[in-house]
Amino acid sequence: MTEPLLGRTALVTGASRGIGAATARALDGAGARVALSARGRDDLLAVAGELRHDPLVLDVDLADAEAARQLGLAALDGLGHVDILVNNAAGAARSATVDIDAGLIDELLALNVRAPLLLIATLIPSMIEQGGASIINLSSISALLGTPRRAAYAASKGAMDAATRSLAIELGPSGIRVNSVAPGVVDTALWARNKAIEGVVETIEGQTPLRRWATPEDVADVIVFLASDASRFVSGETVAVDGGMAHTLDLYGGAV
Known about the structure:
The chain has a seven-stranded parallel β-sheet, with helices on both faces. The chain is globular, with a radius of gyration of 18 Å. It has helices at residues 18-29, 41-48, 67-79, 102-130, 151-171, 192-195, 200-206, 216-227; strands at 9-13, 33-38, 56-59, 84-87, 133-138, 176-183, 238-241. Helix 4 links the parallel strand 4 and strand 5. The N and C termini lie far apart (43 Å). It has 256 residues and is an alpha/beta fold. Helix 3 (67-79) runs parallel beside helix 4 (102-130) and helix 4 packs parallel to helix 5. The chain has one domain (9-188, 215-238): NAD(P)-binding Rossmann-like Domain (Rossmann fold, 3-Layer(aba) Sandwich), CATH 3.40.50.720. It is built from eight helices and seven strands, in the order βαβαβαβαβαβαααβ.
């Protein structure tokens, strides 16, 4: 088995479940030593127990204004350097816009925009000193399409897509690549309740050209690609991992 990331280090936020856990496993499988971050230490330890390359567990709540800087410094202390940063931790909300308030908006922006930007800012000096790195921000199909009842969430993810493009220009001369990954509908525990609603599974599959839901591993494999030298000349991009959903309008609902 090839290990294209052997000898490299990675920090994955939100690594205790779903896409984050799958990403930690995939990076480890590709040879990287992974630092896993999330709020739940027990869940992080469970994921870390599956990894082979001396994982590092860092439990932190990135909703705290000081937490991102502390996490970055702890990762540097434990890993020595960070070659790959995956900003996966995020908050989500589905609500009619008339019902949202300042607290909800601030909460989403704090976790989905402030935390990743402050974490990047903390790691930049080390990344420049080591001669390069790959930063991957998790976006969403909501940043690419209009998704009803998700205006605040979509705004936060769209902000990170814009930041990704700006960072790619700013940091490119230092050998630092910055990209985003925008998953579609992913079959994780967060969707379990919605999947139980009659017709939801069929509707999502009908709106996805590949006719299935994404798995966390589908997204994780693209993240590994963006972390590796296989994508060495890719920067400033938002890559949709959605089975074609974001770029397809099927006016006939799949009918022949």
